[in-house]
Design brief:
The protein is an all-alpha fold and 143 residues long. The chain has one domain. It is built from 4 helices and no strands. Helix 1 crosses helix 2 and helix 1 packs across helix 4. The longest helix has 34 residues. The N and C termini lie far apart (36 Å).
Length: 143
Amino acid sequence: MDWLELLWNACVGCSLGLPIWALAAIALRVACHWSGVEIPALGRAMLVVGATIVPTIALGVLLQVLFIGPDGQNFHPVLQFLVFAITLFVNAAICVGAYTLLLRARVGQALTLWLASSLLFVVAAGCVGCAIAVPYRMIEGGI
């Protein structure tokens, strides 16, 4: 991998990662409203989301390399599901801990907050993905 490819990957990662990060912060704010927790400002919500996303991604990549391998040659659906389940459980623990510390929520509220913000994020990401994919497929002539 040369420097130009590394720079290109960094630009693509930032252009995709920053809107996803903002979407997750907005989902967190809406979930705070629903669960009765004090609604954080957007900057604080982005800080909380960043504090939970970074360790989750690091753990997910580490588990993926350990269970599946760095090149994906040991792929097996059961192992992939195991990586997903472990990462999801650890993400819940990280988020509940961060929400109790950074948002001053009780543990039950933090768990509700994690469930609500995760569901909101999945629904919003699915809608955005469909809004991008359907016109793209129509332009390509696939539909």
